[in-house]
Design brief:
78% helix, mainly alpha, 160 residues
Amino acid sequence: MKSALIKMYFKGGVLVPFYVSCLLTLMYFFGIADHYDFHLQEIKNSYALYEILKLPFFSGLTGLCSLTIFLNAYRSIAENFWYSLLSFVLLPYAFMVFVFIVVVDWRLPILAAQYCVIFFLHFIGPIISFQSFRATVVLNKNDRQIMNIDNKVLSGNNNP
């Protein structure tokens, strides 16, 4: 499987939720800074700021867990429905469950709602990417250009 094709599915399923979480964090940061009249010492001591900064951190870690998508570069995984499904969802979903159980403070409803929105995007992104990927694999099953990884990449030989 061409890595550029898989990279496209990775970007759609992982980077969009991460960017949304960064945007939300930036908006809340400016709200906190405005509340403290932009006094740096008071902003640094704000508990809310540290709690809000956890959101893009865990969103980024979920994205790192999603790197298993690139296992679909191997034809044996890309053509097997179950292996392909597991490579798209197993680690990210397990990490999301961990975050919801251990990290999210459900006593703070606004922050918990933000986690739910961001992780919903992380939940739905790999599903949409997986469906698009499977459609590409099924439609182009015998296309050597799409279904084979470059042998130069695997061997480390980049000479033409």
